[in-house]
DNA sequence: TCTGAAAATGGACCTTT
DNA sequence: AAAGGTCCATTTTCAGA
């Protein structure tokens, strides 16, 4: 189980994964070795999924973020699995959620321009019989972006 | 400007930010010092926004991902800015996009349970006159999650 | 590109609860 | 046992020649 030390560590490394273990140690009041052990353990257990660099899309030629909602025809497991796979494999799809509500999927795309998005639309949606309808929202402003889980120490 | 070496480096560190610079060097065919310089430069320029650890929400008591779309009453700049600010400050909101299309905002929440979400809903939406309507989609499956920009070397 | 100093990581080992 | 601390070897980073 996770204690407050772990929770604090997770908070820190979600904000900045480059903080050194000795710096983390002073911040959470542990020895560097203990920090090392805890990080290592959480990584092994999958609590820490992975470490990553967040790239500014507009600085590398991908200024467009597009969000799609999709409704499917059939919710048969094997048909859905094929769809999910095709979304997973598409590098321009950053995120894919299978949801309950008015829609079945929510997708977030990172693309160079609208033409690229339209092309993907053709490949992924129009040529797929199981897509009943979809809607497109174009992001004008990425107000907040991240995957931070709001873990917080229970006391302090 | 970014050349193919930079592009490859970005690809690598988006996948695993812990890859050592010497390992990166062999992968992209550069000296470790050159890799160091390039990473440092891209971080300074903001091409690399930051380094982060991705935490598995379900392993730390945040198993619920909820997606909301919002339509506002007024799109007056100052009113919008206040809304954006309130979303930015809410730790359970991982992502917020200001969009064009049928809706004005798309929000992605990471919460402990539905009660927590309902509470936020009251605070953020019901007590805000500028929220005309909103819709909720509950994620049953986070099929793909990340913020990877699909940078790819132009040849090879 | 190479070399080397400073820093960070992570294991060994002992101590505490 | 389980977890913390100290010490030390190895690896990594990163600046200067």
From TrEMBL, chains A, B:
Coiled coil: none
Domain HTH asnC-type stretches: 2-63
Pfam families: AsnC_trans_reg, HTH_24
Organism domain of life: Bacteria
Gene3D superfamilies tied to this protein: 3.30.70.920, Winged helix-like DNA-binding domain superfamily/Winged helix DNA-binding domain
GO biological process: regulation of DNA-templated transcription; response to amino acid
CDD domains: HTH_ARSR
Keywords annotated in UniProt: DNA-binding, Transcription, Transcription regulation
GO molecular function terms noted in the UniProt entry: sequence-specific DNA binding
Annotated Gene Ontology cellular component terms: cytosol
PANTHER family found in the cross-reference section: LEUCINE-RESPONSIVE REGULATORY PROTEIN, TRANSCRIPTIONAL REGULATOR AZLB
Name of the protein: Lrp/AsnC family transcriptional regulator
Organism: Trinickia dinghuensis
Phylogenetic classification of the source organism: Bacteria, Pseudomonadati, Pseudomonadota, Betaproteobacteria, Burkholderiales
